[in-house]
Amino acid sequence: MFKQYFKIILRNWKRNKVYTVINIVGLAIAFTATLLISNHVITEWTMDKFHSNAGSIYRVTEQDLESKEWESLTAYLIGPYAKQEIPGIVNYTRVVPFNSYGIRNNEEEEYIPIPKSLFIDENFFQIFDFPIIQGEIDSTVLNWGVVTRRYVQQHFCNQNPIGKTVFIKDLNSENDHGCAVRIVALIENLPANSSIQSDIFIDSRAISIDMLYWGFLSSYNYLQLTSTADIPVIERMIPEMIEKNNSYLKADEHRCQLQPLTDIYFHSNHLPSDSILRGQISLSLLLYGITLLVLFLALGNYMMIKTAQINKDITRMAIQKCFGADNRTIRHQLSLEIGIHTLCALLLSLILAYVLHPYIIEILSPEHPYAFHLSFQKLAGFLLLVFSTMFLTGLVLHLYPHRRLNRNGLKQAIQPVPRYKDIKKILTVVQITIFSALLFCAIVVSRQMNYMEHMDLGFNQENILYFYWPDKEFRYETLKQELLHHPAILNASNGIPLPCYEDADPVSLASQPEKTIKARIILGDADYIDTYQIHLREGRSLIKHNYPSDPKEFARLRPNYIREAIINQSLVKALQLDHPLETILNLWDREYPLKIVGVVDDFQYFPLYKYSEPAILMYEYPQISSTMIVHYQTGEYQNVYRYIREMFQEKFPNTAFKCEEYNFTELYGKDIAVVKLIILFALTAILIGGMGIFAFSIFMAESKTREVALRKVNGATEWQIMQLFNRQFLARVLLACFIGLPVAYYASREWLKGYAYKIEIHAGLFIFVFLTSILVVLAITIWQTRKAARQNPIDTLKTE
């Protein structure tokens, strides 16, 4: 019996090659998108949940009650003291991140920067499930190291690393001469769903003893609690414990919160960027939602084409029933064909997913690329989704011929379906609705990112670079003069690069100390405004002061010294100053007075997610920053970069040179990923929907050959016949846009709420999307409609 089914299916495939290709390719594209996105989303949703005791591990976070700012890095000493003094804590471990360390295998090689240097305690592998597969950690060995298989492949050519010695060094420190690290253990590559990522873990005793200071926020403290531990009590006791061991840090000035390990990835937006992976749950849900839309679009496309084929084959099915075939026979035949389509599409999708994974993951997770790997659970979940959706699709497709063949008899079954019952037209509207909505969203997000990229920030971010200068003598005026010797360097300054994330501090008028507001302190020297080309509305720039070279001498003069400051327009308005120049401000308290010497226009020193706030530009001693900022002539980047690097390497040959520019991609990486994904999905929706509309236009042209011939015999022109066909599609585009564009507008408006500075969505965008949808649909259908209109009516009528 199945042999006969196969023959019928193969005959159908030969007779309808276009339909078959569109069916399989459309499903394969949708399955590929579903597999890639679901693989990534499931990786995010299972982040850190593979640890056997994940539910009892917490990270200590801290908030300064004055600034309201949260920190994920806390004091290095919290872990051991908390275990000893606070009940309910079973174990602890600490992870100290550094991005400035380099490593080499022997003393003849140069140091290679380690992207993520993680220094850990011995008990790190007791708390986290990163099993050691070779070797063991011996606490008697000072400065041990643990490496992954990937590290061994890259640096030891797959040789046994146990017992080998490597050398590490802080590349930002001229005084760090490096230390030897002995590799004592090998572990598997860390899973993709681990928020802690590194290929080498180093004994924390290899780093500076300065971390033993309670006020130095240097490490991630992870605590393992008992099942009966009272978390609020522990959170209250940690600040009390800190004050007990260091009276300088008062318990009522900050508070601690224990963050569950499984919440770190999705619920750390209130914390500054750190070395632990994090994601956005809204982006994850958006990805999965759009993926399901694309899958639904492909299934609708498949159903539309199959119902068109069923309409063509309904006569054959009716004849089969006349010769004794029952409903089960037709159902088995249809199910077998759907099953073969599904298997072919699945095989093609697995190949496409493997090939496309590196490109997609570069968009989704550029900071954490990982290899394509399908665990049994992921593959089972994907197959369950595919087979369940295809089962429902097959069920609907089976009911369609079943009702036609059994409801009104065979004679009525082969009659054309009434227009209002034609499921193909409904699915066509759904397809156009989806890709018009995605097109609208793609245009909005693209315009928003383009607006942000070219927005006037109030300062010059072009031809600006900044670099770290590890000069312990703080003689930056000499350095600036040396930089300005290069003819392409227009200006140089010492200060904090823009944009920045400076904390807000209390400031008040000296004449009204009770009236306090918050202002952001941006530290820069006398050339800061000229270097960034910030517009000075009134007053003057800061004066270049000749500070004493001895910090102790400056500390003696400091209490009686009134520092100069430049404020922005927002602070002028907040303080309600009619004549701001020469006004005295109190920063923090009355012992730190500031005199306003200039006022600048507001400039966007924050990323564009929020508005600029009141700000103060000032210069402080000891040196405020180890960063030099350089403004150079257009087209001279390579020469300027080479000049600075040579000067740096001459003075600091054993220190890494780091030079950076304003990096739009790094600032708004997640948003750029959203833009790319929306555009990619919009193109995918247009491709899948276009194939469906193309197949439907072929079917429509084939099913109306006699009608077209009769109209031409009665005097209709080709243009009139094409208008007749295209009018139907235009009506569907109008209905689809009427449904899809309001939904897309609402979604886009909600997305734009995340930005302080955003575009306006004008009525012209609705018109543009509507006209574009019409052009896309006509471009797809006009070939078939014109082909049908140009056929010779005599040839058609002879064969009908």
Polypeptide structure, described:
There is one protein chain. With 800 residues, the protein is α+β, with helices and mostly antiparallel strands. The protein has three domains: 55-263, no CATH class; 418-456 and 665-800, no CATH class; 464-664, no CATH class. Helices cover 48% and strands 18% of the residues. It has 22 helices and 25 strands. It is globular, with a radius of gyration of 34 Å.
Rounded radius of gyration (Å): 34 Å
Uncertain spans: none
Number of domains: 3
Q: Summarize model confidence as the mean pLDDT.
A: 80
What level of helicity do the residues show? 40-55%
Structure class: alpha+beta
Topology, number of strands = 25
The profile of the biggest β sheet is:
14 strands, mixed
- Specify the number of helices: 22
State the end-to-end CA separation. 33 Å
Shape assignment = globular
Strand composition percent: 15-25%
Provide the descriptors you would attach to this structure in a database record:
single chain, 800 residues, alpha+beta, 14-stranded mixed β-sheet, 6-stranded mixed β-barrel, 22 helices, 48% helix, globular
